[in-house]
Specification:
Order of helices and strands: HEEEEEHEE
Number of strands: 7
Structural class: alpha+beta
Distance between the termini: 69 Å
Strand order of the largest sheet: 2-1-7-6
Strand content: 35-45%
Radius of gyration: 28 Å
Length: 143
């Protein structure tokens, strides 16, 4: 008659559970890598574009991804309104404004398209959008 030791069966169960846990971690890691892979498979680059509107018309579009050094410029309106805008690598903001409440200045710099900067008294809106550009890479190389 064969006798099985309870310690051996408990050891085998623990080893099996550990192996299953490691397998789930490995599969989960592979799925995470596949879902969060860079755009190298699609060969696309995302560019941040800041569109500056005054009175509903587009004044200027700035590619924030291409900015190397921060710079400032001033936008003046019809009624003598003035907004000083600073452009940085990947972000844009209003430094000073002639409006009474200065909410546009207090909003700070934006770097995504979630909330635009608006200066209602000066009728100025700064929106950020993502522009996807395709990079031409060969599908296949033959020799």
């Amino acid at each position: 008659m064969k006798y099985s030791y309870p310690e051996k069966t408990a050891y085998r169960r623990r080893a099996l559970l550990l192996a299953l846990l490691l397998a789930f971690v490995a599969i989960g890691s592979l799925l995470w890598i596949a879902l969060h892979a860079t755009d190298s498979e699609t060969h696309k680059q995302n560019m941040l574009i800041a569109d500056i509107y005054q009175d509903g018309s587009l004044l200027q579009s700035i590619a924030l991804s291409n900015v190397e050094e921060a710079y400032r410029f001033t936008v003046t309106g019809d009624n003598g309104s003035v907004n000083e805008i600073e452009v940085r690598q990947g972000s844009i903001g209003i430094l000073s404004a002639s409006c009474p409440d200065k909410l546009c200045v207090h909003q700070g710099f934006i770097s995504n398209s979630l909330l635009p900067i608006t200066c209602l008294p000066n009728r100025l809106v700064i929106q950020i959008r993502m522009e996807t550009s395709d990079i031409e890479l060969p599908d296949m190389i033959t020799y």
